[in-house]
What we know:
Layout: H1 3-18, H2 29-44, H3 59-67, H4 72-90, H5 93-96, E1 100-104, E2 107-110, H6 111-137, H7 139-148, H8 153-182, H9 195-219, H10 236-254, H11 257-269
Helix pairs in contact: 1-6, 2-6, 2-10, 3-6, 4-6, 6-7, 7-8, 8-9
Amino acid sequence: MSRIEAGLYQLGRLDRLAAQDTSVHRLDPRAKVVTTLVFLGCVVSFGKYQVLPLLPFMIFPIVLATDGRVPLGYLARKLLYVAPFALVIGMFNPVLDRAALAEIDGIAISGGWVSFISILLRFALTTSAALVLIGTTSFNGVCMALERLGAPDVFATQLLLLYRYIFVLGEEAASMTRARAVRSFGGRGMGLHVYASMLGHLLFRTYDRANRVYRSMLSRGFDGQIRIARPLRLGGRDVIFTLAWSTIFVLFRVFNVPLLLGQAVTKVIA
């Protein structure tokens, strides 16, 4: 299996995880999408120098991943794959912001390092929540929930097609890579100079493949609406799930839970 095929397999694993039957999977997609949006809004609303207040939010992705049988190791590997983007965003903070913000055992901690850690933590929380949402709902379910919640039909459909065409592009790239390897006798044709030609051919092949896929969709009755096999039914359990978690997120946002716990422990010890 080539690296491209291995990457597509790992990407498609979220859809396979979404096909499970657990209490989290049985929740209405709209309830999970709204809850995740509240979670994301609370997490990103913290200031750049706030780190400890973000820690309690780790409960949400961990609990949902555990109940939804989404492996935590798989989530950790996915976070490592995309972590360089967060590192690039915050890597200059320690250089640009050198003002001392705290002191630990005589060691001054600059505001740049604190904001850098805050960026990494918020990145880990938001990305893991999004991965758990897809792994317990499926990308189709998320797009349909967005559509039913009032998002424009064009936006939801384009988002779904963008995700699906990633696999089309990957399959074409894997096919061209295998053909290139088979025809490269003695290592000929394996240099970097052939990549420009391959990219051009890949563009035309995926464009042609996309047209064939779209015509197939139209012949099967596609009318721009996203549908999944399980109909959406918003029940009392879904409402309780959304309200309960949203209330917890708001409390975590309003109150500094780690600070309050630390003060309570200090009083007990004293």
